[in-house]
Design goal:
GO terms for molecular function: receptor ligand activity; tumor necrosis factor receptor binding. It is a single-pass type II membrane protein. With 168 residues, the chain is mostly beta strands. Helices cover 3% and strands 39% of the residues. The strands form two sheets. Strands 1, 3, 4, 7, 10 and 12 form a six-stranded antiparallel beta sheet that branches. Strands 2, 5, 6, 8, 9 and 11 form a six-stranded antiparallel beta sheet that branches. The longest helix is centred in the N-terminal third of the chain and has 5 residues.
C-alpha cells in the first residue's frame, strides 16, 4: 500500500499535521485551544478548552486535564504559541493596569520538572503574544498564568494557546 495516499495507511482524509510537515503519516500531537471562560478567576492560572464543537479549537494526541491544563503524552520538540488580549483594554484603561502585568507559560507538573518556558510583559499594551520551540517530556503539564486581577478576552480570535509536535 502507498503510505502517502490517505485512507490506505490509516491516516484520515481530513487535514492533518503530516500535510503541513511534509511527512506521509506523522502521528498527530497538536492542540489549538481557546480560553475556558466560565466564571471569576480565583488564581493566576488560565484554563483552556479544545473541541471542534467550539469552533476552531481541537486537541489531538495531547490531553486536557480537569483543570484546563495541557498534558503531553509523547516527548519531543514542540512549537508553543500563545496570544492573550486583555478584556476591556483601551488606551484609557492602560494606566489602571498593574505595571508588572505578565503572561507566563511553563511546565507545572511534574513538580521536579517545573520550569518557566515563556514570560511576556504587556509593556503598556493590551496584547502579549509569542512562540518558541522547546523540548517536552511525556507527562509534562503546561500551565499558563496571567497576573491577577487582569481578565483575558474570551474572544477566540484574541486569546488562544497552541502546541504542535515538530520533532519526536
Amino acid at each position: 500500500m502507498d503510505k502517502n495516499r490517505p485512507g490506505r495507511s490509516g491516516c484520515e482524509e481530513r487535514w492533518r499535521p503530516s500535510r503541513l510537515l511534509g511527512h506521509s503519516c506523522l502521528e498527530r500531537d497538536m492542540a489549538e485551544l481557546q480560553l475556558n471562560h466560565t466564571g471569576q478567576r480565583l488564581d493566576h492560572r488560565l484554563r483552556w478548552q479544545g473541541s471542534p464543537a467550539l469552533g476552531r479549537s481541537f486537541v489531538d494526541g495531547l490531553e486536557l486535564d480537569d483543570g484546563g491544563q495541557l498534558r503531553v503524552r509523547r516527548g519531543g520538540v514542540y512549537r508553543l504559541h500563545i496570544q492573550v488580549t486583555l478584556a476591556n483594554c483601551s488606551s484609557s484603561t492602560r494606566a489602571a493596569r498593574p505595571p508588572r502585568a505578565t503572561l507566563t507559560v511553563g511546565i507545572c507538573s511534574p513538580a521536579a520538572h517545573s520550569i518557566s518556558l515563556l514570560r511576556l510583559g504587556f509593556h503598556g499594551g493590551c496584547v502579549a503574544a509569542s512562540q518558541r520551540l522547546t523540548p517536552l517530556a511525556r507527562g509534562d503539564t503546561l500551565c499558563t498564568n496571567l497576573t491577577l486581577p487582569l481578565l483575558p478576552s474570551a474572544n477566540a480570535d484574541e486569546t488562544f494557546f497552541g502546541v504542535q509536535l515538530v520533532h519526536p
